[in-house]
Amino acid sequence: MAKETWIVAGLGNPGENYRHTRHNVGFRVVEALAVKHHARLKEKGKAILGSITLFDKEVVLFFPQTFMNASGEALGPYAHYHQIPSERVLVVSDDLDLPVGNIRFKPSGGSGGHHGLDSVIVHLGSKNFPRIRIGVGKPPSADEGPDHVLSGFKLEEKPLIDAAIDRARDGVELFLEKGAPATMNVINQDVHRKNPSKKTIGIEELISKFKDYGVQKSSSFYLRYEKAPDFIEACYRNEIFILGIEGFLIDSSQTLPVMDLILDMSSLANLSRKEKIEKSYLGAKTFISKVAPMEKLHFNFCLDEPK
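Given the sequence above, the corresponding structure tokens read:
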């Protein structure tokens, strides 16, 4: 029996210049799915696409290359040609009316003024398609909407949007496995933004705050692997530079680290303080996402700006 075919389409603008703009979070969610499931992507017609199998379904990962406001010109003809009904076309897009990091799933509905969704509705010939919307925040005024969606995220917004992309990726999988009601119950939860302290805190205070995470005091930190993401977020909020991480394997008598990350100081020379903090944060997050579970991690960090 042939597998049922679905489309998961991320909306955005093609090209590296737009990659990290607010308008492109839909692309980033589907990219996250492609990375997780090792999809091979190729350009075909007016789209870049790949195919994976999830929950006994053939899932086409679809990136229109027609620019946001003409997204339907790529998606509609592809769905019609392959006889995929709109109910099996899941669209992921940004939403100005949701706070940064909040997510909404709906099984159908209008465009809410989103021009990319307008185009999809026109070319699919239906409003009856599921969609996941990711909040990118309101612009200061309605007139600034076009500039806002083509801007990048602020430093303090990036952890929220990174987490939202991961949640939306998981939401796509949940929808394909269990359907609309289960998906709405899980991902339609507001993320209440914490108000991180602007104050730079001392090492002793940081150790005290994280003592329940299994931190041991030394010239740096040893941390249990499962607590590392929380520690990295705390360093980011408190403007602490992570200069290096060493990973030690579970069930190993080896005393040397098996994986390590060292921040290249020479690459920081011409960056602002905020840019240095961001580079430190993103480097640490990338490292943690790639390493296998380890017995412990050794963090080197500093409060002063690295030179």
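The two ends are 62 Å apart (CA to CA). Try to locate this feature in the token string yourself.
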